[in-house]
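Dear support,

Our group has been running a series of protein-ligand predictions, and this particular one with NAP is the one our PI (initials K.S.) wants archived with full inputs and outputs. We had some confusion internally about which version of the output was final, so please treat the block below as the authoritative record. The input we submitted was:
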Amino acid sequence: MLKVGIIGATAYTSLELIKILLRHPEVKITYLGVRRTDRPKISDIFPALKGLLDLPCETIEQKEIPGNIDLAFITLPPTISMQYVPLFTGKGIKVIDFSADYRFRDKSLYEKWYKAQHTDSKGIETAVYGLPELFREQIKKTNLVGNPGCYTTATILALAPLLLKGLIFSEDIIVDAKSGVSGRGREPKEDTHYCECNENIEAYSVGGHRHSPEIEHILSIKTHQKVSIQFVPHLIPMNRGILCTIYAKPKAGVYGRSSLHDDDVHKLYKEFYGKEPFVRIKEGNEMPKTKDVIFTNFCDIATKVTENRIIILSVIDNLIKGASGQAVQNMNVMCGFDEKMGLL
Ligand SMILES: NC(=O)c1ccc[n+]([C@@H]2O[C@H](COP(=O)([O-])OP(=O)(O)OC[C@H]3O[C@@H](n4cnc5c(N)ncnc54)[C@H](OP(=O)(O)O)[C@@H]3O)[C@@H](O)[C@H]2O)c1
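Confirmed final output from the archive:
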């Protein structure tokens, strides 16, 4: 049995993670770390866990780390995570970090967008980006995974086949993204109050959302070209789920004819993701729906070719394929378990 700990156990993503791990036959949750000091049971914080996991939470200490774990999931906010991760990696404990602290290979890019000095240079240099569909071989060999962001997962999976085949202009891409409110975390913020977000839809962080550089950075590394996107996220009155509608400009003449057809693009996606257990390509005119993927680790994708654009639509559950499900998928890859274990 793999002994796992969760550091930041009161987070939304931690509740989802615990639910998945309780179904996993090779894992035992042996440690839950929180910043409060009153040692509450996790089932007092999340009553949904009563009778399923009644483990008391311990106070996380920067000096002392738990001795009874083989792998740590860190579900803390960016800039806080990096204060804890080296304590675990330094002792040879595998780490999957949910924040942005280990998603960038370029420290200065991270520091520019997160307005903080990165204090774990070795970690940021050696971490592997935890998107198994694109980086599986590297994930198998690493002890430290930077688990991708939610918008990032939906966008990168949607764009990778076309960019890797060189079928679209890599600097002319528009991403219109919509997320349910749990994407903003459990801690209340003004725009996540019920009266503010219910019966409302609005864009936020236009031109400056932190997932934009992450998408560009990872796709540029993976496809060996400069990728540049216009990314506009919207908050919509749902608990969970993300829909990305992406507009890309096709290059002319790539298939020996003046334009691409629907069938060309559909076939490309079917082949690219043919062996992937968690990416499903829609048929015909069927469009992806958040309802079909919430509470699952699936990413559903559809493509459509119009006069002068290729439109790609993708949906995920921000808390599962966008966070905790993906983290378990990464754990399975890192530990040599069946990649689907606990998830299907
Ligand atoms: N929500 C999503 O859809 C989503 C998707 C992908 C990735 N992520 C990432 O996953 C991580 C967790 O996200 P979340 O939405 O689940 O967060 P959340 O519900 O807002 O919870 C944040 C957690 O961090 C703890 N925390 C905050 N500041 C801390 C500090 N200074 N020291 C110690 N602990 C601190 C909180 O503890 P208290 O309970 O004591 O405040 C809580 O456990 C974040 O890095 C986020 O960016 C989230």
